[in-house]
Design a protein that fits this description.
The chain is mostly beta strands and 277 residues long. The protein folds into two domains: 2-105; 123-275, Jelly Rolls (Sandwich), CATH 2.60.120.260. The chain is 0% helix and 51% strand. It is built from no helices and 28 strands. The strands form seven sheets. Strands 17, 20, 21, 23, 24, 25 and 27 form a seven-stranded antiparallel β-sheet that branches. A five-stranded antiparallel β-sheet has the order 1-6-7-12-10, with no helix packed on it. Strands 2, 3, 9, 13 and 14 form a five-stranded antiparallel β-sheet that branches. β4 and β5 (21-24) form a beta hairpin. The chain is globular.
């Protein structure tokens, strides 16, 4: 674990106008510590005021502020800085003012994986952060039953015979047009169905334009998915694709289906999108 320098707090806006005149909007008094674990920035609330999480923002990171209702002494936030970020600001924001509580120098952290919450470690119970589920949402679960790394994975419970029954989408991330990217994931299939040749997973990268509209995806729907190679063990796979000239963001789409009626489960972990130089 590598300690990170915490710079001096800077007040951006500390005054609020009201009908009774001008008053000072007081930012909370908090002591933070920050450490680096791999490409993760770990921020810990060491002492001071409890903060309502609806008022807390982090800039320069993938994802948002802490989960839960309050951020108090002993609580910890784990986030990955956005690629190329020099600093991360811990911001206290109200309707009328904004104050930077601390600034953390992250220029020494090298970030390659662009996917937010790539290992499903952030979330609450069966709900995960920064991913969207489609299909039968009650059968798409964040779970600690099995994981490749960390404590959690995403489970597709009881696969159906259609991709649309079990789908997840990662949060869109900024990319460079005409740049090549590698993307991938790891899965654990519990068993094959009676028609193993039709048990398939489908990992796609979707390219979005400046309006947030999907303009292209690779592989295409016409190409279709790939057969599951193994059951009963973790398997990793990856592909590469070039971003279209009008793409500004990308997201992963992961789906799976069975060929028979045995309702196997599949777990997902270690998703990634990274630039290929």
């Amino acid at each position: 674990m590598v300690a990170i320098i915490i710079l001096l707090s800077v007040v951006v806006s500390g005054f609020v106008l009201s009908l009774g005149g001008s008053t000072t909007e007081e930012a909370p008094l908090v002591s933070f510590s920050a450490d680096q674990e791999g490409d993760q920035l770990m921020i810990t609330h060491e002492a001071g005021d409890t903060i309502d999480t609806s008022n807390l923002r982090l800039t320069g990171v993938k994802g948002s502020g802490p989960s839960g209702e309050e951020f108090s002494s002993g609580d910890r936030i784990s986030r990955v800085p956005t690629p190329g970020a020099e600093r991360v600001d811990i911001v206290f924001k109200t309707e009328d003012s904004s104050s930077i509580l601390r600034t953390v120098d992250v220029s020494g952290i090298e970030v390659s994986n662009l996917v937010v919450n790539s290992e499903f470690e952030r979330g609450s119970g069966e709900e995960t952060s920064s991913w969207t589920e489609k299909g039968t949402k009650s059968e798409i679960l964040r779970t600690d039953e099995r994981s490749l790394s960390g404590a959690y994975s995403m489970k597709f419970n009881d696969l159906t015979q259609s991709y649309s029954g079990r789908e997840i989408f990662s949060e869109p991330v900024d990319i460079s047009s005409n740049q090549r990217y590698e993307f991938g994931a790891s899965y654990y299939l519990t068993k094959f169905s009676s028609d193993q040749t039709k048990d398939e997973q489908f990992l796609q990268i979707q390219w979005l334009n400046s309006s947030g509209v999907v303009i292209e995806e690779q592989p295409t729907e016409d190409t279709g998915g790939s057969k599951f190679d193994e059951s009963g063990e973790w398997r990793a796979f990856n592909e590469t694709a070039k971003a279209p000239s009008d793409a500004v963001a990308a997201q992963l789409k992961i789906s799976a289906k069975e060929g028979g009626t045995e309702d196997p489960d599949v777990y997902w972990d270690e998703q990634f999108i990274q630039r290929v130089d």
